Amino acid sequence: MTIVKGVTVPTEAVGNMSCQTGHGYVTLTGVSHMLGLNRTLMSVPELTSNGFTITMVIDKCMISGKQ
Description:
By secondary structure, the chain is mainly β.
């Protein structure tokens, strides 16, 4: 997978992940696990194209489940 500034990081595994939202938990599918990253990266266009709503408030990113 290519991340910031064209850096390529190999995907070690693909699976599902539960995330807490403002309204409970949602399950994200097709999540790539990449060793060596010390941050969590999420694709906002990928989430919104799959029916999630993203709200940015000051220093928080809120994900609402599929509508």
